[in-house]
Automatic annotation (TrEMBL):
Family annotation (PANTHER family): FLAGELLAR MOTOR SWITCH PROTEIN FLIM, SECRETION SYSTEM APPARATUS PROTEIN SSAQ
Record-stated family: Belongs to the FliN/MopA/SpaO family.
Swiss-Prot/TrEMBL GO biological process terms: bacterial-type flagellum-dependent swarming motility; positive chemotaxis
Protein's name in the database: Flagellar motor switch protein FliN-like C-terminal domain-containing protein
Residues covered by region (Disordered): 1-52
Compositional bias per record (Basic residues), positions renumbered to this chain: 25-38
Lineage: Bacteria, Pseudomonadati, Pseudomonadota, Betaproteobacteria, Burkholderiales
Gene Ontology cellular-component annotations: bacterial-type flagellum basal body
Family matches, as SUPFAM superfamilies: Surface presentation of antigens (SPOA) (SSF101801)
Length: 424
């Protein structure tokens, strides 16, 4: 039990002292407070130590008894600060790629990496406005010429060249515009000026067409770089590499939850072995068919007694099923005092009961190879046996039953009910 382990830890971590070692400090303490023969008072050093000890004891008692409103607020945890530039530089340890299918049927491959070369730009660059924030483009004329056929350098002066660049950027293929953040030539010099002062982040943007490869330098804020990398269609270049063996052998952790039912605490407390619990939310039917989600795919499974495993009958892909979705709700603001509010009725507190068949015996590599007709086994347990969890805590076991054509669970193992003592 945790309490026993804590007691054991304390007894082991506290050094034992013999009777003699106890007596020695006591003798020293007595000798330190002997009265002076001449004055009849304890030495000044001893009196100061004793007064400090009494003051510290009084302070502990005072802090313990003083009202909560009078206590000083706890100091916040100080976390190490990480800047946006460091995060962007770390993310670009591997370059990012994007594949764009242009309207004329040509495929353009884009590559972004950090530009570590010296600035060395004698021109002012082309100020841009993107959905990721302000940016400045350098050496952009060859890229615009290859993608749009507009030669920016044919302009008679800076104003004419800027006008041609504005036209060429607007003529970019929609797929390229999306990848670059829908850029437009900025008419405001203040954004470009402030960007140059903020120690911006430099990117090397390469584009590969069937017959040519070109590059330009794009300067953005570190926050804008992260927004660009998070947007479509950019992906880390390492994502195309085959995953390592340790990753493909990792347990996929796909649990088969046949259903859930939420009961008030009072009803949950009244449950016992032999009771039937209807599943308010069910993922399986009485025929053994059900679905399970893995990433952005949903598998339709069917239990086969002959194989003693599940068969994948069908697979569907739903992009709306993001693997990054979390069940936890976002953090709320601070909760105010509960003065004047009625006390919580504990009997009405909801308890979520989950009924699980177990975990599929699948690795990450096995999931990638799933097809219709694949057979998957359970790690432990077999239907109709299920484990019962209350708010995520395993508390009992049950058996799937057909209750008037609906799937339900009969409780076969349940925590022993509390029996009040005769003295209570």
């Amino acid at each position: 039990m945790p309490h026993k382990r804590n007691a054991k830890f304390c007894s082991q971590s506290t050094p034992k002292m013999s009777a003699a070692s106890h007596a020695a400090p006591m003798r020293r303490a007595k000798s330190s407070i002997k009265r002076s023969r001449t004055t009849g008072r304890a030495p000044e050093k001893t009196r100061n130590a004793a007064s400090c000890e009494r003051a510290s004891t009084l302070a502990v008692i005072t802090n313990r008894d003083e009202p909560r409103a009078m206590r000083s607020p706890p100091s916040p945890i100080r976390l190490r600060s990480v800047g946006a530039t460091a995060v962007a530089r770390h993310r670009l340890t591997h370059p990012y790629r994007a594949r764009c299918h242009l309207a004329d049927g040509v495929q353009a491959d884009l590559l972004i990496r950090e530009d570590l070369g010296p600035a060395g730009d004698h021109d002012e660059g082309l100020p841009l406005s993107t959905r990721f924030g302000p940016a400045i483009a350098y050496h952009y004329a060859p890229l615009l010429l290859a993608c749009t056929g507009v030669d920016v350098m044919q302009g008679a002066g800076p104003s004419a060249q800027t006008a041609l660049a504005r036209y060429a950027i607007a003529a970019l293929d929609p797929a390229l515009q999306t990848a670059l953040g829908d850029p437009t030539v900025s008419d405001s010099d203040s954004e470009a000026t402030s960007l140059r002062r903020e120690s911006p982040f430099a990117l090397n943007v390469q584009i590969r067409l069937p017959s040519i490869r070109l590059a330009m330098r794009l300067v953005m804020t570190a926050t804008g770089v992260q927004a660009l990398l998070d947007g479509e269609p950019w992906q880390p270049d390492c994502a195309s590499l085959p995953p390592p063996a340790w990753l493909t052998g990792l347990d996929a952790g796909i649990r088969l939850v046949v259903g859930e039912s939420t009961l008030p605490l009072a009803q949950c407390n009244a449950l016992a072995c032999g009771d039937i619990v209807r599943l308010a939310v069910g993922a399986f039917d009485v025929a053994g068919r059900g679905s399970v989600r893995t990433g952005s795919h949903r598998l339709l499974l069917r239990w086969g007694d002959s194989h003693r495993c599940f068969e994948v009958e069908h697979m569907t892909h739903d992009p709306s099923l993001s693997p990054n979705d979390m069940d936890a709700a976002p953090a709320r603001g601070a909760i105010g005092p509960a003065d004047g509010i009625a006390p919580i009725d504990t009997a009405a507190i909801p308890v979520r009961l989950s009924f699980s068949l177990g975990t599929l015996r699948l690795t990450v590599g096995d999931v990638a190879a799933l097809r219709s007709g694949s057979l998957v086994e359970l790690k432990d347990g077999l239907p109709p046996k299920v484990s019962i969890e209350a708010n995520g805590l395993p508390i009992g076991a049950g058996e799937l039953v057909d209750f008037d054509g609906r799937l339900a669970v009969e409780i076969t193992q349940w925590p022993q009910a509390h029996v009040p003592s005769s003295t209570s």
